[in-house]
Specification:
With about 500 residues, the chain is of the alpha/beta class. It folds into five domains: about 90 residues, Nucleic acid-binding proteins (OB fold (Dihydrolipoamide Acetyltransferase, E2P), Beta Barrel), CATH 2.40.50.140; about 140 residues, Rossmann fold; about 30 residues; about 30 residues; about 60 residues, no CATH class. The chain is built from 16 helices and 14 strands.
Length: about 500
């Protein structure tokens, strides 16, 4: 009986697991044993997938820990991991059974120490400077007196109150406030969005576009001010078409936005002072300039009046200016009468000389010469061209007359044919044809009778047949009346029965 049983195999009682069971158990063990942890290390390879998820490594001198930050968690990171940056990451350790790997799901990243932050800041600064974003020639000039000022800052802090108070003291202007977070993970995207939003406004619209932008925040540690060191903020400030003043922190604080902005203010109050001039000083200056202009104009008029008086002294008196022309006029007037007499005598002598040459013989010779010229011209004239032209025109008239006669004859023939056709149609449509079929027309006192009632009102009437007219009543019915030829419009006036 014992031969029928297998011999026991050592270890036969060890439990058997599937691969999924092992992966799930490892996952639960890791998550239960570690839970939420913080890990410090240097960021290695960083890769952002098309799906938006972020994959990177945290390493030390011996080992590497794979980390994952899902797409929805990236916006909550205060610092985005960059290769070579020393950080402290916080998250939950888990396993990925499909590849037998474990990794850390990170939802918070912090820079490990101020030295690491300064190293990252210096790296970004060199990168942006190499792209030319710090170049002085690309910085825009601030408007002297902006009409509208846009301020991107926290609406509840002391910064906005200091800016508004300083603007009200110096030169009141319209201010548009764009509320933003001035620290934390939302600081960088909100500040960049505020700068871009101000630039997208329409000049002169319902919410007008500002002429100047101030990005302001009070003092704080480098961690508090780190949102203004993010690359997204620096690039938004560099791309702004509106002049921008950065007023982040105190005078000793420096952020990336300070290098790319068009003007840096040591404090938010100083930014308000850079934005507008002092109104009273401007009024005093304009008043002084107006007084100087009035004095200059008065002095110029006085100098020119004195110059005119000086020049007038060098001019002669008016009466002396007319003495010489008056004498010249007297001399010319004295010579005018003798000159006219001599001119008349000279012309009289000229007429006498010319008339002396005029004799009847001279006139006859002149007339004879003209007659000879006319005979020469008349001999050159001939009637033959005129006769040829007349003959040609006569032929043309004859041809036209023949064509006209033929056209007239053809037109008369057509009209005659149309008239005959119309007359045939009239005969066809005439009421005479109806009389031929046995109908008659009854008239009384020149009117056509169409009903029995109308006939009863008359003592006598006429009946028109196809072969003549018959009168009843006083007329002799045995003698047919003379046949009347009805007019062409009789069908429109008669009635047939």
């Amino acid at each position: 009986m014992s031969d029928l049983l297998d011999d026991p195999i050592p270890g036969q009682n060890t439990p058997e697991y599937s691969v999924s069971d092992i992966s799930g158990e490892v996952k639960r063990t890791l998550e239960g044993a570690f839970g939420r942890i913080r890990v410090r290390g240097e960021v290695g390879r960083v890769f952002k997938a098309r799906s938006g998820h972020l994959y990177y490594d945290i390493k030390d001198d011996r080992n590497v820990l794979a980390c994952t930050t899902w797409k929805g968690q990236i916006s909550g990171l205060s610092v985005v991991p960059e290769e070579g940056l020393e950080v402290v990451v916080t998250g939950r350790l888990t396993a990925f059974g499909a590849q037998s790997k474990y990794n850390l799901n990170v939802d918070e990243v912090a820079v490990a120490g101020q030295g690491a932050l300064m190293a990252l800041l210096e790296k970004r600064k060199k990168q942006l400077e190499a792209e030319g974003l710090f170049a002085p020639e690309r910085k825009k000039v601030l408007p002297y007196l902006p009409q509208i000022i846009g301020v991107a800052t926290s609406p509840s802090g002391a910064v906005i109150r200091d800016i508004l108070h300083r603007l009200r003291d110096r030169f009141p202007r319209k201010v548009l406030i764009w509320p933003v977070a001035v620290q934390g993970s939302n600081c960088a995207p909100e500040v960049a969005n505020a700068i871009q939003g101000f630039n997208r406004m329409t000049p002169g619209g319902a919410l007008p576009r500002p002429d100047l932008i101030i990005v302001a925040r009070g003092g704080g540690s480098i961690e508090d001010l780190w949102g203004f060191n993010e690359e997204i903020v620096a690039r938004a400030a560099a791309a702004s078409d509106i002049p921008l003043i950065s007023a982040v922190g105190h005078e000793t604080d420096t952020t990336l936005i300070d290098f790319v902005s068009d003007r840096r203010a040591p404090t938010p109050t100083a930014a308000a002072e850079l934005a507008v001039p002092v109104r009273m000083e401007l009024l005093a200056w304009t008043g002084e300039q107006g007084a100087r202009l009035s004095r200059s104009a008065t002095d110029a008029v006085q100098r020119r009046a004195q110059r005119l008086r000086d020049l007038s002294r060098a001019l002669p008196r008016p009466d002396t200016l007319l003495n010489i022309p008056r004498q010249r006029l007297d001399l010319v007037a004295d010579r005018l009468a003798p000159a006219l007499d001599r001119s008349v005598q000279n012309r009289r002598l000229r007429v006498v000389e010319i008339s002396a040459h005029l004799r009847p013989a001279t006139l006859r010779n002149l007339v004879a010469a003209r007659q000879e010229a006319v005979r020469n011209l008349s001999s050159r004239l001939s009637l033959r061209p005129i006769q040829r032209e007349i003959e040609a025109q006569r032929n043309n008239v004859t041809r036209l007359a023949e064509r006209l006669s033929g056209a007239q004859t053809a037109r008369l023939d057509r009209m005659r044919q149309n008239l005959e056709a119309t007359d045939r149609l009239r005969e066809t449509l005439s009421y005479k044809a109806t009389l031929e079929r046995g109908y008659a027309v009854v008239r009384a006192e020149g009117q056509v009778l169409t009903t029995k009632e109308q006939a009863g009102k008359h003592a006598s009437f006429e009946i028109e047949f196809a072969d003549g007219v018959l009168s009843t009543g006083q007329a002799n019915p045995s003698r047919p009346s003379q046949k009347k030829t009805p007019s062409k419009d009789t069908p429109d006036q008669g009635s047939l029965f």
